[in-house]
């Protein structure tokens, strides 16, 4: 478990990877490139909608997921996977289909599957007691471990290919991968290793761990407040603590039941109701709404995520008026570590 960022309880290790990732995600150039990319992908998506017929119902949960998948692979790896084009091809008839390189299809299919299985695996290892994954469900454990090997190999080969290109004079860009490489070089230099590419001291595992979270953490569409994004937030104390009369040994795991807090009728009036105005009428409700977590381990992608959502909503409402196809249907969702929206059909009317 003590690897990467999200579930890493080794404070020193977590701190280094987190510092590098923060530096990447907070960089001005990265944030600017992001907005431009979302705008471009939005333009591409609306062209497909036009070609599929302006009044045809559109499942936003699928399209926005494809848009963010394209976005995340472009920002994380600089590679284009054409998820939007593939979705267009799924929905249109033969003659209209666009050609997509077979290589891109194979890459996007395999890495998406690996990333989804990786998330299922994390959930399994958190929830199942040790004897279950060691003995009772050994087959499932092996499947998840084999998937992790393949997923990591795929990401390592992307990183190593890029390191080689940079060593051969290719200029660094402003996607997450290049920025993480730059941060890692800077880090090695501060340690006195004087990293000049393709120096072996570049820590590919550090870059990969950050990449895993960027890919895993940002690929799904999330229904935010109505269902909380995560069911729980985990914390562990590095030092022994005394709170009231209770003593907590160092290394104790604490689970914050965020889903319960998000639906607590003592904190929220009509907690199940979709009512964005609640924040205007009761600004203090914000304190109990921690969709991105709280404290030093709060989500480092928060600013990018908020900016992307704002841009996307503005682009969408500037061009269309939206109406849910079936207003009485409850939100369809699936929980694998996070709550994902699975189905939100709308009719788009061009303004
Ligand atoms: C709507 C979008 C997103 C939501 C709602 C969200 C929410 C969260 C939440 C609740 C946590 C746990 C925080 C805690 O325990 O206090 C988290 C952690 C994290 N998120 Fe996000 N996130 C989003 C997008 C992103 C994006 C776009 C990225 C990266 C580009 C990202 C990267 C991470 C990472 C690396 C962590 C682990 C932080 C740590 O343990 O130090 N997230 N996120």
Automatic annotation (TrEMBL):
SUPFAM superfamilies: Cytochrome P450. Heme binds at residue 299. One of its GO terms (molecular function) is monooxygenase activity. The keyword Coiled coil does not apply. InterPro entries: Cyt_P450, Cyt_P450_CS, Cyt_P450_E_grp-IV, Cyt_P450_sf, Cytochrome_P450_monoxygenase. Transmembrane segments: none annotated. Keywords: Heme, Iron, Metal-binding, Monooxygenase, Oxidoreductase. Its cofactor is heme. It comes from the Eukaryota. This is 3088_t:CDS:1. It comes from Ambispora gerdemannii.
């Amino acid at each position: 478990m003590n690897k990467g960022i999200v579930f890493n309880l080794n404070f020193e290790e977590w701190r280094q990877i987190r510092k590098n990732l923060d530096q990447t995600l907070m960089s001005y150039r990265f944030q600017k490139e992001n907005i431009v990319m979302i705008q471009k992908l939005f333009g591409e998506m609306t062209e497909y909608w036009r070609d599929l017929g302006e009044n045809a119902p559109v499942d936003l949960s699928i399209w926005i997921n494809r848009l963010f998948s394209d976005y995340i692979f472009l920002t994380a790896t600089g590679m284009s996977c054409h998820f939007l084009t593939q979705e267009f091809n799924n929905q249109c008839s033969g003659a209209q289909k666009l050609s997509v390189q077979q290589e891109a299809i194979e890459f996007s299919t395999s890495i998406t599957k690996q990333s989804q299985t990786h998330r299922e695996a994390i959930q399994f290892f958190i929830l199942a007691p040790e004897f279950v994954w060691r003995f009772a469900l050994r087959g499932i454990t092996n499947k998840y471990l084999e998937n992790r090997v393949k997923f990591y190999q795929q990401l390592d080969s992307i990183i190593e290919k890029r390191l080689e290109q940079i060593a051969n004079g290719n200029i660094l860009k402003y996607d997450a991968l290049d920025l993480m490489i730059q941060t890692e070089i800077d880090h090695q230099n501060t340690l006195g290793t004087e990293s000049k590419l393709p120096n072996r001291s570049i820590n590919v595992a550090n870059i990969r761990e950050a990449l895993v979270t960027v890919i895993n953490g940002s690929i799904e569409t999330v229904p935010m407040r109505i269902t909380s994004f995560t069911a729980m937030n985990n914390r562990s104390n590095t030092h022994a603590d005394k709170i009231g009369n209770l003593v907590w040994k160092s290394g104790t795991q604490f689970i914050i039941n965020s889903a319960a807090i998000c639906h607590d009728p003592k904190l929220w009036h009509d907690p199940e109701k979709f009512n964005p105005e609640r924040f205007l009428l009761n600004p203090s409700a914000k304190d109990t709404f921690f969709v991105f977590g709280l404290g030093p381990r709060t989500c480092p992608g928060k600013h990018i995520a908020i900016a992307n959502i704002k841009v996307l909503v503005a682009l969408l409402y500037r061009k269309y008026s939206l109406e849910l196809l079936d207003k009485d249907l409850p939100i369809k969702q699936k929980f694998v570590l996070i709550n994902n929206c699975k189905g939100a059909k709308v009719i788009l009317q061009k303004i």
